[in-house]
Amino acid sequence: CMAGWDIHTPNLGALPLRITSAALWISVTRHQTQNYERVLDFVNVIWKQVPGLVTYRHYLKLCIAFKAKLLMEMFVKRQSLLDILQTLEQYFPKVVVNDPKAVSCSLRLFS
């Protein structure tokens, strides 16, 4: 039916990124902890895709803060201890992986 049609998607530029970041910012300012996993994923994607936008120290502080808040919510919601311990191990493993983007002073602070 549409064979031969040349369908172009418009170049939206940074619009999807701006919409996503605005939606996640609303979640953070309203303390909607059910969305913090998405916020954490977004922070990780931005860290990997846009080098230099955020310092390593700031990136780690954001990640640690959201992970800690998610763990605290698990306690508040009285989730099972096994689930909490598994999440704790997932978020804060005993083995620290050195990130090549980290500067040495940041590595010393968070080691």
From TrEMBL:
Pfam families in alphabetical order: TINF2_N
First and last residue of the signal peptide: none
GO cellular component, one term: shelterin complex
Location of the TERF1-interacting nuclear factor 2 N-terminal domain: 25-97
GO MF terms held by the record: telomeric DNA binding
GO BP annotations listed: regulation of telomere maintenance via telomere lengthening; telomere capping
Protein name as it appears in the record: TERF1-interacting nuclear factor 2 N-terminal domain-containing protein
Organism: Scyliorhinus torazame
